[in-house]
Amino acid sequence: MAKIESPLTLGTKSISKLLVQYSVPAIIASVATSLYNIVDSIFIGQGVGPMAIAGLAITFPLMNLVVAFCTLIAVGGATISSIFIGQKNESRATDVVNNVMVLCLIHSILFGGLTLIFLDDILIFFGATSETIPYAREFMRIILYGTPISYVFIGLNNLMRATGYPKKAMISALLSVLVNVILAPIFIFKLGWGISGAAIATICGQFSAFIWVLFHFMSKSSFIHFKMNNRWFTPTIIQRIYAIGLSPFLMNVCACIVVVFINKSLLDYAGADGNLAVGAYGIINRTTMFFVMIVFGVTQGMQPILGFNFGANKWDRVKNTLYMGIWIGIAITVVGFAVTESFPDTISSFFTKDRTLIDMARNGFRIYFIFYPVVGCQIVIQNFFQSIGKPKLSIFLSLTRQLLFLIPFLIILPKYYGIDGVWASMCGSDLVAFVTAIVTLIIEIRILNKRFLNIKPIEQAV
Q: Which long-range contacts (CB under 8 A, 24 or more apart) does 104-108 make?
């Protein structure tokens, strides 16, 4: 019989080794996913044209909503399962896996079905014009038909990592990307399917990963796996999943709202070149998300370490994980700042040969990334609170960067500085959100220090 891997070393192994063990596979998976998004956009830009890039950019807010309803379950389930394992309650962790599977199917059918019915109205609300809506509609229809596959894959993949299998979670992400990258150029260039070919390739890649994660949780050799006798729909577990998953859910909803504001501002202040300005933001968005996804890879690797040790009352290990994660996050976004400020034209030329679009993107890169080095710190702190089961603080911090500060900037600055004010709004909100995150962390660390002062770790208490 195959040896069952145990995540119990999360409470004993050195933090630096655990971060390498859990974060490196998550980073590789995140980089692969980001590269897929970038390569996909490059294929669409080079194979279909600049209007297709703008049409794809219009789908970003809707894609954020698709992800939002999935991460509501995936992140909440992953966090709770880690805490249960830290408390040595494997049966409850199994209940979580079963419940996540059911919720993923319910969410995908409800959200995907309703969105398909009102797709054109949604895209127009998000800023689609007569030139861009055919591309946006064609792409999103196929993506929405595949939401059951996408949701189960993403939901179970997060649980795979949280229950002690970071390398297998990495493999599933890489499998999805590899199939996608192989099929996309065939469908777009060889078969001439255009932007729909990119969407079909995406679903094919996710289907291959869906099969992989399903087999993992059906196997009795997995530390936590499906059990028919355990609970599949438990109101108390569902409530906790939603409570913790609400933070990343709101983060993605905020991203959706913000992209709508950004697209509309660009259309209003760029005049006749409004569609190209939206395309420029699409290029910048893909680029910034590459580095943000690497930071997310770090936080995904931190999550089971933080959740387990918080559940086991090992506060010093929790703090060490947090501080290491902050410095790694900052280092990643510093690199992002250096690359984008130094080579904006080179980056843009991968996506398009249109000189107007490249010029617009260059200007956006220069302003957008001014305070980008502090973004990594803010993301790590926000995800720290989510990982230790403090969703209200995580929600607050996710709202600050993407809604509470950015929307007022977007309303005020473009009136005085035009399209430059749109880019400046984003970098300004990054700075203010960073300061807010630091102040919140200092206050909460002092509170938690007092709480854990006289609490013994779980194994000592037993």
A: 104/70, 104/73, 104/74, 104/148, 104/151, 104/152, 104/154, 104/155, 104/156, 105/148, 105/151, 105/152, 107/69, 107/70, 107/72, 107/73, 107/151, 108/69, 108/70, 108/147, 108/148, 108/150, 108/151, 108/152
